[in-house]
């Protein structure tokens, strides 16, 4: 199909999740988590130079995707945040904006 020919999906297991090493379910701190994500994104950018990259994340991955796509918008063609864990990380304005956007663009 078209999707199989034109879309490549890559991902990694965060420390302590999936098949990665580390204490199961433990995130040392947000800075380390974001640093790991950026390391992965830079590796992908090196391997697939010139290919448009979209950042996608669910829950905790949505939080990481929010941060790295905000820090480096030039890296990504777009970002998809699925149920991002934003409530305790960002101000009420962004949470409110997300709720409005959800109604306008379901």
Write the layout of secondary structure elements.
Elements: H1 2-6, H2 30-47, E1 54-58, H3 60-71, E2 78-82, H4 92-104
Parallel strand pairs: 1-2
**Total beta strand runs:** 2
Count of alpha and pi helical runs:
4
Order of helices and strands: HHEHEH
- Shape category: globular
Mean pLDDT: 80
Uncertain residue segments: none
Helix content: 40-55%
Structural class: mainly alpha
User: For the terminal residues, how far apart are their CA atoms?
Assistant: 26 Å
DSSP strand content: 5-15%
- Roughly how many Å is the radius of gyration? 15 Å
Task: Tell me the strand order in the biggest sheet.
Answer: 1-2
Biggest pleated-sheet summary:
2 strands, parallel
Description of the molecule:
A two-stranded parallel sheet has the order 1-2. Helix 3 links the parallel strand 1 and strand 2. Helix content is 45%, strand content 9%. By secondary structure, the chain is mainly alpha-helical. Helix 2 crosses helix 3. The radius of gyration is 15 Å and the shape is globular. The chain is built from four helices and two strands, in the order H-H-E-H-E-H.
